[in-house]
Amino acid sequence: MKIRQKSMALLCGVLCTGMMAVPVLADTEVQKYTNTDFAMDTVVSETLYTTGKDLNTTIGEKIREIETEFLSWTDENSQIAKLNAASGETTEVSEELTGYLEQIFQLAQDSDGAFDPTIGKIIRLWDITGEDPHVPEQSELDELLNDVGYQKVSLDGNKVTLEKGMTLDLGATGKGIGCDVVADFLKTQKDVSGMILNLGGSSVMAYGEKPDGSDWKVAVTDPRDTEGDYLGAITLEGGEFLSTSGDYEKYFMEDGKRYHHILDPKTGYPVWNGLDSVTVVCDSGLLADGLSTACFVLGMDDAMELLEKYNAEAVFVDEDKNVYLTDGIKDRFELMKNTYTVKDAK
């Protein structure tokens, strides 16, 4: 068995960033501050443009706070952990978590369960990112599938009720939520003119503008050459978020088959539908994160209606080295690998 879990910072990156605080232009007060941090179990890259102080440390703290206070299922003091511990009962949660859950369960409904935040137990059964990645027995999967289904969760204002035995896992939207929190914080900082934030390569936020007016460009990983050249680059506008879901991020090989971490909530098995990766761009970090997972599970044809509903754009990469682009991203994608063919997503 071969286990694979790459640091996502190596898989998808922001192009052309420095590693120290330097003046961007000699005749302006705008400074460029860069930092590498660690949060949400991944490397966080930060590039900030501001006439004020360096806020990168504060931003890293905010990302860690959102995880420990709201999202972590392992920290018994987080709201999600407390909610899981009280399954079968009604629990009041904060207004902030209520807002996240409303969006998450709406997406679960709109995707017909392709995205489902109740599959945490099955994720942990496979243990793909742990010490014992393995193919579970069908009987084990069948038992846990009884506790899966977004329809079994009741939201009534800030009151949440999980059926007995169910758990919530917001990992598929966690990094996107972190990006949203940072974006909201930056809106309160009048000195900040722009920022690019990269959480592990799979979730990226572009805010504002660069002092020289150049584009925010984000590299997209070649899912079958994760240590080589990038597949391409996408130009983002300030206020946009990017998320990538791919079968190359976390997986193990057994008997020549790739068992990856994107699971079909209906079967409990990894999704095998010919896609290697899906990258989504939209105006919300949470939704970009959730949509990239949902679209991967649905497959390109069935994903198009969902993307249109959320006014989102996408890049689909399949196992035959085709890159499919939705209409709104065609002029913003630059192919860097001549081994791939660009086509229209229909």
Describe the structure.
- This protein is α+β, with helices and mostly antiparallel strands.
- Helices cover 27% and strands 29% of the residues.
- The chain contains 8 helices and 19 strands.
- The protein has helices at 56-71, 79-85, 95-110, 120-126, 138-145, 171-186, 285-298, 300-309, and strands at residues 2-5, 22-23, 31-39, 42-50, 90-92, 153-156, 159-162, 192-199, 203-208, 216-220, 232-236, 241-246, 250-254, 257-260, 275-282, 313-318, 322-325, 333-335, 341-344.
- The strands form 4 sheets. A 10-stranded mixed beta sheet has the order 2-3-4-8-9-12-15-16-17-19. Strands 1-13-14 form a 3-stranded antiparallel beta sheet, with no helix packed on it.
- Strand 8 and strand 9 (203-208) form a beta hairpin.
- Helix 1 (56-71) crosses helix 6 (171-186).
- It is globular and about 60 Å long.
- Residues 1-12 and 16-27 have low confidence and may be disordered.
